[in-house]
């Protein structure tokens, strides 16, 4: 009897429990764990990307400006992909099309988020005058960490878990969730059944892939978008086997879930892009700015060394070392030789001569001439 109790207690302790609540209320305002997970992931991604962007030669404020465009586009794209790839809850029998707008209930497809988010990032990068490929390289590890943090929202919502398992880290879900799953899939899982925590598998995979990307980037100085394509290849590799474990409703093509086919096709494309770009551009790009553009599209005013800085004029005054006096006689002779008056005939109230015009000594080969 005692052995049976100990075995039962061990099995209960080994299982991963699901949170009993995913929404709290501050008066009439709902506070949803899924929304907090998404926002926390975005914040972490921005922080990581900012550090990497500055290390690549960018300006920290660029990241927030670009995120202003990329994040809304990504959310819309992620929701669109989810609705298309999982249409039954919205367009199937008993579905409600209006629920397609309920983003807070969960359901953001990463492929749509990345695809449409890239459009927003492209707009932001063009406005700032920086390369999209450089920004994508800085973003890639942070994007993986953001996805990992966002998966915690699936845990609170008790969704996106896998097939039944007897492993000690099996996920325990509420009886109501099992009943809903049985109704949606036509299965008959008993209450207390444990499932593969696929959200946890993807969380750990993403964190490991992010660390690998950082190491690869430091070791081989990847550039021209290669870090981003490595991210896509690594993520899709993990997504294939994780997606095969899931049992939630999804669109199937030729016996496989649509997300599996998407992962295979996108992953192979990313691998090809990584290799081709590596052959064409084995080294990292020199800077993050677009060729022929400066930040905010102000033209080529931002130059290195002694070149001009926007809003400044070239210094035409001759350089005078401290402790020396200007030889106005020589200056006057030089001015006369050039056909210009060598001195100002006007006198000040003290009767002393004014300083000769600096331009008479001949123009200094200033920055504009040396560019």
Give the biggest beta sheet. 3 strands, mixed
Uncertain spans, ≥5 residues at pLDDT below 50?
1-12, 296-371
Radius of gyration: 32 Å
Number of strands: 7
Number of helices: 12
| Percent range for β-strand residues | under 5%
Helix content: 40-55%
Principal-axes shape call: globular
What is the H/E order?
HEEEHHHHHEHEHHEEHHH
* Spatial order of strands in the largest sheet: 1-4-5
Main traits of this protein?
mainly alpha; 7 strands; 12 helices; 3-stranded mixed beta sheet; single chain; 371 residues; two-stranded antiparallel ribbon; disordered C terminus
What would your notes on this structure say?
The chain is mostly helical and 371 residues long. 54% of the residues lie in helices and 5% in strands. It contains twelve helices and seven strands. The strands form three sheets. Strands 1-4-5 form a three-stranded mixed β-sheet, with helices on one face. The radius of gyration is 32 Å and the shape is globular.
Q: Which helices and strands, and how do they pair?
A:
Blueprint: H1 2-14, E1 16-17, E2 23-26, E3 29-32, H2 33-55, H3 60-85, H4 88-91, H5 110-128, H6 132-157, E4 171-172, H7 175-185, E5 194-195, H8 198-220, H9 226-245, E6 252-253, E7 256-257, H10 258-280, H11 328-337, H12 367-370
Helix pairs in contact: 2-3, 2-6, 3-5, 6-8, 6-9, 8-9, 9-10
